[in-house]
User: Fold this.
Amino acid sequence: MPILIGILEQGAIYGIMALGIYISYKILNFPDLTVDGTFPLGAAISAALVTRGVNPWVCLLCAIIAGALAGSITGILHIKCKIKDLLSGILVMTGLYSINYRIVGMPNMFLMQKPTIFGGIRFPKALFPFRYIIVLFVIVLFVKILLDLYLRTKSGFLLKSVGDNEGLVVTLGKNPGTVKIIGLSIANALVSLSGALYCQRAMQFDISSGTGTMVMGLAAVIIGTTLFRKIRFMNVTTGVILGMIIYKACITAAISSGLRSSDTKLVVTVLFLLTMLLNSVMNKSEGGRKNA
Assistant:
């Protein structure tokens, strides 16, 4: 039971991050490595403000704003400065490493005895052991619904169009570059929020916590969009979140089987390759059926 709860908690926290990568990778077709910097950015801001007595919910809001700002800088470098998408993300990610260190003042920080969003809500005794998962799932559900509603708006339609057909966006009288900047801002705002939640749940900040964020998010997005693509009543965003839960379950199962914690990166790499292979096989299978 504790293992299952842990998987669900991790899936909820990182599921919000996966939603951000879904926007940049699937919708915008933008390989945004900024996320490796905005995840610890959200954690850094949350840690620094919580230790200074700021309301933990306000800390989440500040993390969202900071993540959006970082994402917009990546977009501006790419659109306005004509720097390639991958390099733009790398530049901002690299700069954020020093910024995150400056915000906290040290590579690690513990938040013991500090107030978090999980401590300010009263739960009945029967639900108290599940307080973390309840709060996290309420937040991830709220974020998912908000994102779904946004994608149905005119701005959301432009966002979904710019990755596949910039010409359509131009014919509608909108600037594709501006739409991309907005999309990258939203994506990194979600990733930063995920980092802030991780910090408050783990009660610690680690400057290297963002390492591999892009790979993890991509794996979850591919798992979610591949396994659940034929379920018509399920939104893509739901599939992405479930993809992250499945991903975390696979990682936990691999480590529980006897592998060392130091083998986690290897497990992540193998799982990612298997995910890409599964996606390729299913795409070929569907392509063969259409041609038949």
Summary: The mean pLDDT is 89.
